[in-house]
Design brief:
alpha/beta; 7 helices; 202 residues; single chain; Rossmann fold; binds flavin mononucleotide
Length: 202
């Protein structure tokens, strides 16, 4: 594999859809490569609710995501979540990892229990079986024992739970600062150096 990065990105119907959009922006701005992007139907409902954004038109959605970025260095290939025959559904498709941001408790449950009903869940299942990096960014509070057990199962299977729970020690001033904290943590886990938030000076 060359230096260009290849990821699978899922955006599901959890609150905090801006985390997903910010992650796309960060990739487009800083990380050379391409990603398969899968957006669940519920994510489209939350996009409408939280950002008043209708994504029946994919180009308009990407325009919204990338509007501040002049020359994106990352390419996004939109996949249909119902197409369980798409490339990321197969273990023979090599990539650098999958991120589900934000990740609903429903998708988390599907992954934890090996019950894949769509391309996002199937791609995550494949990551675990192929021992590839899988990072889930759940946003739910409070948690019940079923949520916690599902996170435990995924962790034991090699997945990484990275809650949408930004730190405040870098003195964030804007929502973007908070989003970047989480995006930076994801890049760290993907072994990509980043300067999205100042490192702790002690
Ligand atoms: C406005 C809105 C906000 C939601 N927020 C959350 C949330 O924060 N966390 C969560 O787990 N589910 C949340 N849900 C519920 C999920 O969308 C629902 O469980 C859905 O079936 C998830 O499907 P998906 O994982 O295929 O996207 C929310 C739903 C709506 C309409």
């Amino acid at each position: 594999m060359n230096n260009k990065k290849k990821f699978i990105i899922g955006i599901t119907g959890s609150s905090g859809i801006l985390y997903g959009i910010q992650f796309l922006k960060v990739l487009a701005k800083y990380i050379e490569g391409e990603s398969h992007l899968i957006i669940s139907d519920s994510a489209k409902i939350v996009l409408k609710k939280e950002l008043n954004l209708n994504i029946s038109n994919y180009n308009e959605f990407m325009e919204f995501c990338l509007k501040d970025i002049q020359v994106p260095v990352h390419k996004f290939i939109l996949e249909n979540n119902n197409n369980i025959g798409a490339k990321p559904a197969s273990g023979s498709y090599i990539h650098n990892g999958m991120v589900i941001i934000p990740c609903s408790m429903k998708t988390l449950s599907g992954i934890a229990n090996g019950y894949s009903t769509n391309l996002i869940e199937r791609s995550a299942e494949v990551c675990l079986k192929e021992r590839r990096k899988l990072i889930l960014v759940p946003r739910e509070t409070p948690l019940n024992l079923i949520h916690i057990e599902n996170m435990r199962k995924i962790t034991l299977s090699g997945g990484i739970i990275l809650p949408a729970s930004p730190g405040f020690y870098h003195n964030p001033k804007t929502i973007e600062d908070l989003l970047n904290f989480i995006c930076g943590k994801i890049l760290n886990l993907l072994d990509i150096e980043q300067k999205l938030f100042p490192s702790w000076k002690g």
